């Protein structure tokens, strides 16, 4: 009865959280341990998985009108929402199975989870005592995951009328879901603004760290650089890195009449001038693309390259430290995936190095850009 009462009380608080659209971030200093070993990465991963599972389970108690109100929408695509929930549960179960392999080395947050039923049971009763070593983390983490879940549910509720990275339209689209455990790929989006452009700085940082990333570029930006400098200079900037395209301009490719020409022109420019770096990948700006475009992309030999870990580092959204801590929390939750940074925000020069430093001893790996979407 006490557990049921506490859970019911918590459900009420769940419905009174932040307004729709508030971006989730978590102060990682609330977590009392450094991620300086694979085992401690797993401990933190188990904790984030259980907390998100708890929030996800709670959201299922909301009926359709209540969920729509919570997400700030008049109507929702409930089928898409339920499909997302199912995928989230499957990934949580898989991730927890990986994360509990080190339970013989550190039993923190280790519970009997053998299947989906036992995962849901553990999520329903997951809570920390007031004297827990991790108590300062508990409430901030719950708020983070509730807000993050809202972000995902809202995108699903609007899909496919408003397309995003929350779901795929077919096998020609890739995200980080099938990557191996503990492997992450760094990707960098362009944006509508011309400056600042931190490509040269980020590419050089990655080369010095013996790492690589995939830079999704705009055709017009590449043309502007070619107007100012030589092809050799541009090739030197992207040396040892990969390049995909985002179209000629940073604008929605779901309603733009010239979207096909935008993709073709960009591919022609990048493939012609930077053939050693070019990857046959299209990253839709803001994830917006048409659901009936599979035949076009296949004819062009392109894959649509989505992501599943978003830094939310666009202008005015999060500060660099908040963005970095958001990404790290999602790395612990999803345990593998494609990370999306904005190359035209100066915060990337702070957030990305911090992230790499924080995970240097955690047992994760950074996927080579040549293999990331295969």
From TrEMBL:
InterPro entries: Glyco_hydro/deAcase_b/a-brl, NODB_dom, Polysacc_deacetylase_ArnD. GO terms for molecular function: hydrolase activity, acting on carbon-nitrogen (but not peptide) bonds. Residues 178-302 form the NodB homology domain. Pfam families: Polysacc_deac_1. Residues 1-18 form the signal peptide. It comes from the Bacteria. Keywords: Signal. GO terms for biological process: carbohydrate metabolic process. This is Polysaccharide deacetylase. The lineage of its organism: Bacteria, Pseudomonadati, Pseudomonadota, Gammaproteobacteria, Pseudomonadales.
């Amino acid at each position: 009865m006490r557990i049921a009462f506490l859970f019911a009380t918590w459900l009420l608080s769940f419905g009174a959280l932040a307004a729709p659209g508030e971006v989730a971030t978590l102060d990682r200093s609330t977590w009392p341990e450094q991620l300086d070993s694979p085992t401690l990465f797993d401990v933190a991963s188990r904790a984030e998985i259980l907390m998100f599972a708890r929030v996800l389970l709670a959201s299922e108690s909301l009926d359709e009108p209540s969920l729509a109100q919570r997400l700030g929408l008049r109507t929702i695509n409930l089928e898409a929402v339920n499909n997302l929930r199912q995928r989230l549960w499957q990934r949580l179960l898989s991730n927890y199975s990986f994360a509990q392999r080190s339970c013989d080395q550190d039993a923190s947050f280790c519970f009997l989870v053998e299947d989906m039923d036992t995962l849901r049971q553990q999520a329903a009763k997951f809570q920390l005592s007031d004297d827990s070593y991790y108590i300062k983390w508990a409430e901030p983490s719950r708020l983070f995951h509730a807000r993050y879940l809202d972000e995902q549910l809202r995108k699903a509720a609007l899909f496919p009328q408003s397309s995003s990275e929350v779901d795929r339209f077919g096998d020609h689209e890739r995200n980080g879901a099938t990557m191996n455990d503990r492997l992450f790929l760094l990707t960098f989006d362009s944006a509508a603004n011309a400056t600042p452009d931190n490509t040269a700085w980020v590419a050089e940082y990655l080369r010095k760290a013996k790492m690589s990333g995939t830079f999704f570029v705009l055709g017009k930006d590449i043309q502007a650089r070619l107007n100012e400098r030589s092809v050799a200079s541009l090739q030197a900037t992207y040396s040892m890195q990969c390049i995909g395209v985002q179209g000629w301009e940073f604008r929605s490719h779901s309603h733009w009449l010239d979207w096909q020409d935008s993709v073709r022109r960009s591919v022609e420019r990048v493939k012609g001038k930077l053939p050693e770096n070019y990857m046959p990948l299209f990253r839709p700006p803001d994830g917006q693309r048409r659901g009936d475009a599979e035949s076009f992309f296949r004819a062009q030999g392109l894959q649509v390259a989505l992501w599943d870990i978003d830094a939310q580092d666009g202008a005015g959204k999060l500060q660099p430290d908040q963005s970095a801590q958001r990404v790290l929390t999602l790395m612990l939750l999803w345990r593998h995936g494609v990370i999306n940074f904005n190359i035209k925000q100066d915060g990337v020069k702070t957030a990305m190095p911090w992230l790499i430093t924080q995970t240097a001893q955690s047992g994760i790996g950074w996927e080579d850009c040549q293999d990331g979407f295969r």
